[in-house]
Structures are given as C-alpha cells and as structure tokens.
C-alpha cells in the first residue's frame, strides 16, 4: 500500500499500511525521549542545555562556541558523546551522569499509556541513546516502569548510538527478538531506517500539531519517508487503535 494511506487516518494519526499489520507482533520497541513522553514536556531541552554546559566546561570555551561545537559533533558522530570521546577523550560515565542531571517534575504519571503498553501482546523494550538511569527515572515518573522487559541503553550499545546498524544488531542479539515480528516507535525518522530495512513495523511519533505538515511531505511523489509505516502525534491513542485492530 506504499504511497497511499488506508481509511481511518483522520485526527492525530496517519497510515501508509493497514494497521492490522500489527497482528502477529511479538516485540514492541520504544525509544525514550520525545516518544514515551510528549515533546511538549520539553525534557530533552534540559538535556541539551546540560550537554552545552558540559562542552563549555570541558573545553573551556564560551557558551556560543560550546553550543556550535556540540551541534557539529552531533551531526558528524550521531551523538555529542561519541564526538567528545573521539576528539577529546572524555570519560563517558561522567558525561552521562552530568547531562542527565535534570528536573523530571515536568513529567506526570500516564496511567492510560501504561494500560495500553501492558495490554500489548508480547514483550516490550526501551531502546534509547540515553543511559539506563535516565530511562529508569523517566519511566518511573510516567508510572510505566513495570511494563518493560528490558532497557537497552547507550552503554549496552558500547556507546555507539542509533542509527548505526551495529547498534540495532546488538539490540537484537541481546534481546533475541525477531525483527519481522517486532514494531518500533521513534521520534526521529533517521532512527527508523535500519528497523525498516530489517523488516520491523515502524511508527514515527511527532509533536502535537505537526502531523499535517508531515502529511504534506508524505504525499509528495518523491517523498523522503518510505521507511515509515505510521505517523502519530498521540502514542497512547495510537496504541489503543493498534489494540483494537489486533483484537
């Protein structure tokens, strides 16, 4: 059904494939930041600030230069951490503790999301470029910790971030899941390229109010997102629709 969305795509969701494709899925893989919690919580903005602060202190440069260097490292290496390790030999444990020293009070328990995740048939995983303590604190703040089989973090990935193929291979090897019977939920399109190539069902989580803009891109003849099967602004609502479809 490439290039066409199935009926019932009004509201905060958009489909390229029939949602019944989720029948038979046995592993549900969720990114953490801006995926399990809404982009509007602005939690990652705090992390971004901490990263810039860390770069500023480590390299003893001014704030503007630190932010510019941070972004350059991110684009070249996939994460600022990888860039700092490669170019400046920083201690990754110190970095991860520093950048995730943030205020989680903006997150509120989301029992509806918890119920939806719990009801999904099969195992559920968090797969993040952040570290385990950050993922644990985030999941605890949302009240969803108990629903996940495992957290696969940047340390589990030997500090090699998504979207590197070897990181997905490590995730699959550690969890033992079959990609063709797995679904992944992410907020970054580039992080869904490899999952799609492996046969996973892919869903992109967007900030509220942005799906209509994405839909316009999706409708282009040469649109750039053939690796994305579903788009939603509302993860909880989308999971409820999935549950209704899979019976």
Automatic annotation (TrEMBL):
Q: Which residues form the signal peptide?
A: none
Transmembrane annotation, as ranges = none
User: What SUPFAM superfamilies does the record tag this protein with?
Assistant: HAD-like
Which Gene3D superfamilies did the record assign? 1.10.150.450, HAD superfamily/HAD-like
Pfam families in the cross-refs:
Hydrolase
Q: Which domain of life is it from?
A: Bacteria
What name appears for this protein in its UniProt entry? Pyrimidine 5'-nucleotidase
The organism is Roseibium aggregatum
């Amino acid at each position: 059904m490439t290039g066409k969305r199935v009926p019932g795509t009004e509201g905060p969701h958009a489909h390229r494939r029939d949602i019944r494709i989720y029948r038979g899925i046995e592993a549900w893989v969720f990114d953490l930041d801006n995926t399990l919690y809404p982009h509007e919580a602005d939690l990652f903005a705090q992390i971004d600030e901490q990263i810039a602060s860390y770069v500023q202190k480590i390299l003893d440069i001014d704030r503007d230069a630190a932010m510019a260097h941070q972004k350059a490292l991110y684009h070249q290496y996939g994460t600022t951490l990888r860039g700092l390790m490669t170019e400046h030999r920083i201690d990754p444990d110190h970095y991860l503790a520093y950048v995730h020293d943030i205020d989680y009070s903006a997150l509120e328990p989301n029992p509806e999301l918890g119920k939806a995740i719990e009801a999904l048939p099969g195992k559920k995983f968090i797969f993040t470029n952040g570290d385990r303590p950050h993922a644990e604190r985030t999941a605890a703040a949302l009240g969803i910790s108990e629903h996940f089989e495992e957290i696969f973090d940047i340390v589990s990935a030997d500090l090699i971030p998504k979207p590197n193929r070897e990181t997905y291979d490590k995730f699959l090897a550690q969890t033992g899941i079959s990609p063709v019977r797995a679904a992944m939920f992410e907020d970054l399109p580039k992080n869904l390229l490899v999952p799609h190539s492996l046969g996973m069902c892919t869903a992109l989580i967007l900030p509220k109010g942005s799906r209509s803009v994405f839909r316009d891109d999706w409708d282009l003849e040469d649109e750039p997102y053939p690796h994305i099967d579903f788009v939603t602004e509302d993860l909880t609502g989308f999971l409820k629709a999935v549950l209704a479809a899979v019976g």
